[in-house]
Amino acid sequence: MPEPMIPVSFPPAFLWGAATSAYQIEGAVREDGRTPSIWDTFSHTPGKTAGGETGDIAVDHYHRYRDDVALMAELGLTAYRFSISWPRVQPTGRGPAVQVGLDFYRRLVDELLAHGIKPAVTLYHWDLPQELEDAGGWPERDTAYRFAEYAQIVGEALGDRVEQWITLNEPWCSAFLGYASGVHAPGRTDPAASLKAAHHLNLAHGLGASALRSVMPARNSVAVSLNSSVVRPVSQDAADLAAAKKIDDLANGIFHGPMLHGAYPDSLLAATELLTDWSYVLDGDLAAINQPLDALGLNYYTPALVSAETDVNGPRADGHGASSHSPWPCADDVAFHQTPGDRTEMGWTIDPTGLHDLIMRYAAEAPGLPLYITENGAAYDDKPDPDGRVHDPERIAYLNGHLKAVRRAIEDGADVRGYYLWSLMDNFEWAYGYGKRFGAVYVDYATLERTPKSSALWYGQAARTGALPEVEAV
Ligand code: PNW
């Protein structure tokens, strides 16, 4: 059936953004007093990233930020989500701030504001100062206190000009890819430590949110970005439903439980009791974590499909990278399956209904809380044509499908205020190195030259008109 020709339009104040993170784009890792983060150490450890690639240079955004902001403005974006590199601001993870480090972000923010682009700051997108990891990292309670101090420093420095704040990006990845499966920095494979890390990330979020509020104007908005999973059972059999519930607890409830409701799910506590006794959850922690929020950020790429496991030694298909260690503590009795359908270059199935379902779930989980899609996008094997242009119709189709799902959720009553495409430009895709291109803007890694892909032009047109262009329009 042909698509109806009615334009899919969005509320006038809807934010059309793009997102990045510090380690993935900045480079300049040894400049202006910056010290190594766990991602510098990890990427420089042989065998940890594809081809041994690192973020040493990345896409040199630290030196090219002015051009990058000009490009965003040219495309028509109205918002930009970026993260602050903690070791640029506090090289040892403690003590006074490095002013040149903060100055870089002040200049970036002022440049954005001068171009009418709304900045959204993520405080922590995975680059823990190495010294804090050496002192125990996220499984250690002190790291949460250090994060609160860092949040206060950045809030004081930028709170007068940045309204939108995000404490943590995807704490699930920090805890479970970092400390259980080990495919992310710091590369530890200790399931008990990963659960402790999750609690201390929750605590960091709560203490960080309070610290931000104590130093910032009340008009500013404080949020967190969760990579909440849409977890589907393969059947409605009780065993498969229980498997889906367990993964939902370990992916979602473990974070939104304390953050939104002030409690860990009882079913999560029961499922993990052989591994951990949760004795590191001290009196007052849950109240400290359960801070009132102004918004919730959701990052979505693909849904999960699970069943009860009968062959506990079978291969995993959860799309979380190659590791013989699971990122799911206490879930060897759950099997992951590939969701049917076309996939992106990451092997992640394209499923826009998952985004609709995720939004509706959180609209119900947190009634009244404004929602933002703080990441959504796709990796494809983009290559310039002989004329130098980069055509990426698959990415346009992906964005179109997912933005329609957002629009459908708004029609269904969800209060979605904005969308940040992952990513503004091609960048360092963590363990996959530079091989996976998520950008709307193509980066030639030999020259670092930026070229908007056709998806960037399509998306810019959506941003300027507030409606989705025909997919053949660019
Ligand atoms: C997110 N997983 O990472 C991050 O926030 C971005 O920095 C990243 O570039 C983007 O998504 C694309 O990968 C994820 O294995 C990494 O489930 C891995 C997973 C999920 C998100």
TrEMBL record:
A GO BP term here is: cellulose catabolic process
**Where along the chain is substrate bound?**
Q24, H125, N169, Y301, W422, E429, W430
Name the Pfam families for this protein: Glyco_hydro_1
Q: Which family does it belong to?
A: Belongs to the glycosyl hydrolase 1 family.
Q: Which Gene3D superfamilies match?
A: Glycosidases
- Which terms in the GO cellular component ontology are assigned? cytosol
Is Hydrolase tagged as a keyword? yes
This protein's name: Beta-glucosidase
